[in-house]
Amino acid sequence: MYALAVWFTTAAPTSLQEIRITFPVRGHSFLPADRVFGRLEKRLRTFEVIMNDQEYREIFSEFGTVKILGQDWFIEDYKALDKDLKKLVGIKDMKRIIFNKDNKGVVKVKMELNFRIDDTSKQFESIAKRGRHLKAIKLNKKELKNKVKEDKLKNLKTLLFLYDENWQHDERLAFFKDFLAECNVGTTIPESDSDDGFDCDCNEEDGGVAI
Asked: What is the Cα–Cα distance from 164 to 142, expressed in whole angstroms?
């Protein structure tokens, strides 16, 4: 909501005076994107091995336009705006959120618990904290960092060596070589990790890799 409030204040066309967001009923929405994801998953199952991020992008491009993070678009640190903007309490239970811009260009917001019935007891309120102004807010690009557990990095190196002892020289695996370097992890594998009987926790959740 912070991102939309800032855009509505600073970059939206002057003719736009109101934005209404209606959240679909959970579990009952069928969006065009759902069909694309289904087709994409079916396509991915035809590949036994995908070597790098570029191969993923080529597959994704069959189903839509691919924009690369850090090259075609960037993440701005909207979470840092909590010092300037109010927290929308109870937002997870809301069915509608309405942004309105008054004749002075001040953006205000109202949240509704119902899809069609307006709560007349609620008024539009400024989303900015006292003494703060949306027009004066400056955003910084968010620093991207790969947050992967140490054990996961260890497993990644082991899998790469199991695939090919000289994997560092395979241009198709340059992504992983650069990724390990970014994480300050060497590309050599300790003798204790070179046994075939290693334990792999590859299905555990972690911060993931930014591709």
From this structure: 36
Phi, psi dihedral angles at 107 (to 5 degrees)? -90, 130
- Within a 10 A sphere around the Cβ of 92, how many other Cβ atoms? 7
CB atoms within 10 A of CB 66: 13
The helix or strand, by DSSP H or E, that contains position 97, with its residue range, turns out to be: strand 96-101
pLDDT band at 201 (very low <50, low <70, confident <90, very high): low
With contact defined as beta carbons under 8 Å apart, do 136 and 12 qualify?
no
| pLDDT value of residue 120 | 85
Distance CA 180, CA 113 (A): 47
pLDDT digits (tens, 9 = 90+) for 137-186: 777 777 766 678 888 888 988 889 988 889 989 988 998 888 888 888 77
Question: Is the confidence at residue 194, as pLDDT, over 50?
Answer: no
| Burial class (CB within 10 angstroms; exposed 0-12, middle 13-18, buried 19+) of 99 | buried
- 106 near 94, Cβ under 8 Å? no
Strands (E), the chain: 18-22, 96-101, 107-112, 125-126
Handedness of CA 185, 189, 191, 195 (dihedral sign): positive
Structure-token pair, residue 43:
């396509």
Q: Which of 32, 34, 59, 33 is nearest to 45 (CA)?
A: 59
Cα–Cα–Cα angle for 151, 154, 158, rounded to 5 degrees: 140
